[in-house]
Amino acid sequence: MIQIDALPAFSDNYIWLLQDTAKRRCAVVDPGDAGPVERWLAANPDWALSDILITHHHNDHVGGVERLKQLTGARVCGPANERIPCRDLALGEGDQLDVLGVTFQVLAVPGHTLGHIAFFSDQPATPLLFSGDTLFAAGCGRMFEGTAEQMQPALARLAALPAQTEVYCAHEYTLSNLRFAQAVEPTNPYVQQRFDDVTRLRADNRISLPSTIGLERLTNPFLRTSETLVKQKADEWKGHSNPTHVAVFAALRSWKDTF
Ligand code: ZN
Ligand code: FE
Fold first, then answer.
1. Three-class DSSP category at 225
2. Residue 43: how many CB atoms within 10 A of its CB?
3. Are strands 117-121 and 166-169 parallel, antiparallel or unpaired?
4. 115 and 81 in contact (C-beta within 8 Å)?
5. Which ligand is nearest to the CA of 170?
6. Is 240 a catalytic residue?
7. Is 241 left (phi over 0), alpha (psi -120 to 50) or beta?
8. 245 assigned to active site
9. In this structure, how many other beta carbons lie within 10 angstroms of the beta carbon of residue 235?
10. How do residues 114-151 score in pLDDT, each as one tens digit?
C-alpha cells in the first residue's frame, strides 16, 4: 500500500508524491519544480526518492527533473517519444514498470502532446491513474500537438478503466472545468452537485483531487460525447451536425478553448 499526497507547485500544478511508508521510499510524478520535493525530502531526511515519473515534456512537468536527479539519483521514467531530461527508462504503450512495489501499466494517450503517456495501476482495492495533462477532473488538456482523432479515443480508453480508479491529474483546474461542464450540460444533476462540492473545497483552499473514473464518466463533458444533449450543444456551437464522437469532441474542445 502506498500513500499519495499532492505537493503544490507554481500556481495550479500538483506534483504527486507516492510514499512507501514501511520502507521510507518515495516517488514523484511530474516535478515541474524541484523546490517542493526538495523541501519535503529535507523535512523527511530518512526517506529516499527512488523514482521520478514523467507524463510529458512540458516544462511545468519536467522543470525539476535535472535538479532532483542530481540530488537523489532517482530513476527517471518518461515517454520514449519526447525529450525528457535525464531519462533512464523510456516508456511507451504496453510497457510495465514497478514503482515502490506497485506495478504500473503505461498507456499512450496522445493529443495534448504527441508522446504523452499515463500511468495506470490495476491495484485490487484502489486502481490508480496518473493522467498528466490528458484527463483533468471534469475536463481535458488542450490539444497542443495532437489531433481530435488521437485525443478522443485516448480519453475514451481512460473512461473505460474501472469506475473506482482514482484519477490524479497534474493541475487544479476542476472548478473552471465544471463551469464549462455546466454550460454544456445545464441539466446534469451530477455536474451541479460536483460544482457545489468543488466550490466549497476551493473556498477553503482545499484540493479537489483525486477524482474517480466513475465521477468523470458522469460529469466530464469530454467523456460524454455519446450523450444526445452533449452532441446537441456541440452542434449548436459549431452551427452544423457533428456526426462522430471525434467531431463532437473536437467541437467541445474548440468551444472550451474560447470559453
Ligand atoms: Zn502540459
Ligand atoms: Fe501542465
1. coil
2. 8
3. unpaired
4. yes
5. 2
6. no
7. beta
8. no
9. 16
10. 999 999 999 888 999 999 999 999 999 999 999 999 99
Of the residues 20, 51, 60, 116, which is catalytic? 60
What are the pLDDT digits (tens) for 190-204? 999 999 999 999 999
What pLDDT digit, counting tens, does each position of 229-249 carry? 999 999 999 999 999 999 999
- Output phi, psi for 218, to 5 deg: -85, -25
Lay out the sheet containing 3-9: strands in order across: 3-9, 13-20, 25-29, 48-53, 75-79, 89-91
Determine the distance separating the centroid of ligand 2 and the alpha carbon of 236, expressed in angstroms.
30
Distance from chain centroid for Cα 65: 18
N- to C-terminal Cα distance for the chain? 40
* Homologous superfamily assigned to 3-257: Ribonuclease Z/Hydroxyacylglutathione hydrolase-like (3.60.15.10)
List 30, 51, 56, 116, catalytic entry: 56
Q: How far is the CA of 187 from the centre of ligand 1 (A)?
A: 31
